[in-house]
């Protein structure tokens, strides 16, 4: 595996390197650097609940998984995305994908997005721990000023899950993006550096029950 290096300029003009973190391992879930070899397992994860059929999401169909992985890896090579596959620790099964995206190297600031999970993994703590692992890296290693989340206005499940993380809603981008044949409104949330300590405690408290 080749690490992705992205120049990240701090407020003092110094240069840090945003590298692919490699594997981020939690108690419940492990985030692995996405590779083409994940296609079969992620195809099975998409079949779990047929999550690609939800009209307000952009989950790849199983037969399109290899192409979606390559799309993400191309964005990674271009320096605008850092991509992961998510794996449950109890079963070893792949359950979905997530990314750092829209990397703002000068601020620094990132979005956690392009995330989906198999239906059977929902409500198991895997999503909360995945977000904790990513937020820890963004704030504690990269020193980000804020981390952003975006979702379709009609995806009420996703909006509720983001709010439960402790993120604040910044606003709604009206008629923002062509998605699955319609012009969607995008809801924008964020967590700022001063809010991070409280968000971390909240997530750690939630994860104790799993």
From TrEMBL:
Keyword entries, A-Z: Transferase
InterPro entries, sorted: Acyl_CoA_acyltransferase, GNAT_dom
Transferase listed as a keyword: yes
Domain of life: Bacteria
Annotated ranges, domain N-acetyltransferase: 29-167
Coiled-coil ranges per UniProt: none
Listed SUPFAM superfamilies: Acyl-CoA N-acyltransferases (Nat)
Alphabetized Pfam families for the sequence: Acetyltransf_3
Gene Ontology molecular function terms on file: acyltransferase activity, transferring groups other than amino-acyl groups
Listed name of the protein: GNAT family N-acetyltransferase
The species this protein was found in: Leucobacter viscericola
